[in-house]
Amino acid sequence: MANRLYIYLLMKSTEILNSLQVSLTIKRLCSQLIENHHTFSKSVLIGLQPNGIYLANRLKTDLQKSINKEVQTGSLDITFFRDDFRRKEKPLIPSVTNIDFSIENKKVILVDDVFFTGRTVRSALDAIMTFGRPSSVEFLTLIERRFVQNIPIKADYIGKSIDTIKEEKVSVLWKEQHGKDQILLNSPILT
Amino acid sequence: MKDLSTSHLLGIKDLNQNDIEIIFNTADSFKEVINRPIKKVPTLRDVTIANLFFENSTRTKLSFELAQKRLSADIINFSAGSSSVKKGETLIDTANNILSMKVDMLVMRHPNSGAAKFLSEKTNTVIINAGDGTHEHPTQALLDTYSIREKLGNVEGRKVALIGDIKHSRVALSNIFALKKLGAQVMVCGPTTLIPKYINELGVLVENNLEKALKWCDVANMLRIQLERQDIQYFPSLREYTYQFQLNREILNKIQKPITILHPGPVNRGIEITSEIADSEHSLILNQVENGVAIRMAIIYLLAGSINRS
Questions:
Q1: A93–B25: do the CB atoms touch at under 8 Å?
Q2: What's the CATH number of domain B138-288, 3.40.50.1370, 3.30.390.50, 1.10.3660.10, 3.40.462.10?
Q3: Pick the CATH number of B12-136+289-304 from 3.40.50.1370, 3.30.470.20, 3.60.15.10, 3.40.50.2000
Q4: B114 vs B74: CA distance, rounded Å
Q5: Helices B17-33 & B138-152 angle (0-180, nearest 10)
Q6: What is the mean pLDDT of chain B?
Q7: pLDDT in tens, A104-130
Q8: Alpha helix stretches (DSSP H) within B46-159
Q9: Residue A132: what pLDDT?
């Protein structure tokens, strides 16, 4: 335990994307989405709580500017669908789920900021099915951490892929929360 | 937000304001879940819960069962009437036998006050009190206050009158604790014989006149006369009780302000409340039942974190 603490105390931060790069990446992701979903008449964005919400809202704003139509966007909390309940010390307190439209026969795009083990996406797949039967489900992520997935799930839209080790942590800072957009990789300094 | 301060739910007395807020916020999420097309979540699929009902119940038992099923828990039901309790088995033996079958949590209703606390001390499992004698009925008080919060936005500063048989009501005691902890003002109203002697120590107002109580309050929680717990005659006749303490159109017209009406059930229509008022738009009776499932899901979910299998 003492060793572990020591390692985590010595972390260095490297910038993965700066503010301009974040906004360019989001623009590119929007173009890719429009290629596949055209006017979004049968497609919806679902941000995964807590951090996917900011990205989903950013995508929504940019998409609406480009296609001049409303893009239905909801938020999904996956706490009750996690596979690690009672493996943690205390039960997690859920966030808000807000999907005020039908997803029946819609193309659902799940949105999260970081794609790591894949377990959140697996839980989200179970959770979204309780709202109906979508015609398809896709997954969009801003940062994909390559080669570390625990589950055979892949993202359909990727902002940036990075190679990381398990001990590293990706921090996504949003303007709405932290005053500027920035994505950092926090790595332990191994001495 | 911090964690729950307790690993059982024995009574509201043991909870603090933060606990109640955690339970309410979690219940908000479960209320959203039970309004989805598919109302079930897989969270508790490796948890087994036994419902021990040593006393009759319809609503509470069904509500707990539904909450457990919607959380995907395995459940077994036990009713004292059809069990070995009739053959002389003690409470601890009954509980330990059930726990030997690898049960993780007990939900218990018992006619003796303190039964849930007793069992929590004598067994190594999570206990949820579903009503113990004339002591506490914590889940009912939580769903009552949750329904007030939902309808009026908050509980703090609200004036709530508990009307009827306060002396024999575990719902009244739990409600007093919950409402006080959430910052509401509480009044009890009923015949003097049905108001406990030391009620003032709980910091509540006492009133014997229904009209005055209704004029004072924002919310009226109507309680049933518990004839089955009354060993002596506390008032001359039900007819006289009805004449003085029934919530009906006539008295509501007199006070000329809207009052939110709660009733924990079962409703004795025509005694403490008329059918017309029980079914009116100011009555939250059916909302209470719906919220009961969400509140019980929240409590079971939060307490499942305390299950110890080692």
A1: yes
A2: 3.40.50.1370
A3: 3.40.50.1370
A4: 27
A5: 70
A6: 92
A7: 999 999 999 999 999 999 999 999 999
A8: 59-70, 91-100, 115-122, 138-152
A9: 92
Domains of chain A: 20-164 (3.40.50.2020)
Q: Would you state the torsion angle of the CA atoms of residues A79, A85, A90, A95, taken in this order, to the nearest 10 degrees?
A: 0
| Residue A2 banded pLDDT, cuts 50, 70, 90 | very low
Residue with tokens 């069904």: B62
Residues of chain B with C-beta less than 8 angstroms from the C-beta of A49: none
Per-residue model confidence as pLDDT tens digits over B78-105: 887 766 666 778 889 989 999 999 999 9
Which one of A77, A126, A132 has the shortest CB-CB distance to B29? A77
Q: Which residues in A lie closer than 8 A to residue B46 (C-beta atoms)?
A: 86
ipTM of the complex: 0.79
**For the segment B238-288, what is each residue's pLDDT rounded down to a tens digit?**
899 999 999 999 999 999 899 999 999 889 999 999 999 999 999 999 999
Name the pTM for this structure: 0.89
CB contact under 8 A, B37 and A132: yes
Residue among B22, B43, B305 minimizing CB distance to A80:
B43
What are B196's two structure tokens?
């406990």
In chain B, which residues fall in CATH 3.40.50.1370? 12-136+289-304, 138-288
Q: Identify all chain B residues contacting A77, using CB atoms and an 8 Å cutoff.
A: 29
Secondary structure of residue B297 in the 3-state scheme:
helix
Cβ neighbors of B153 (< 8 A, separation 6 or more) are none
Among all residues of chain B, which has the CA nearest to that of A78?
B41
- Summarize pLDDT for A79-90 with one digit per residue, the tens: 999 988 877 777
pLDDT of A7 > 70? The answer is no
Nearest C-alpha neighbor of A140 from the set A63, A80, A65: A63
On the CB side of A120, CA atoms within 13 Å amount to 20
Whether the link from the prior residue into A50 is cis, omega within 30° of 0, is yes
Q: Residue B196 — φ and ψ, nearest 5°?
A: -60, 145
Residue A1 has a pLDDT of 44
pLDDT, position B282: 93
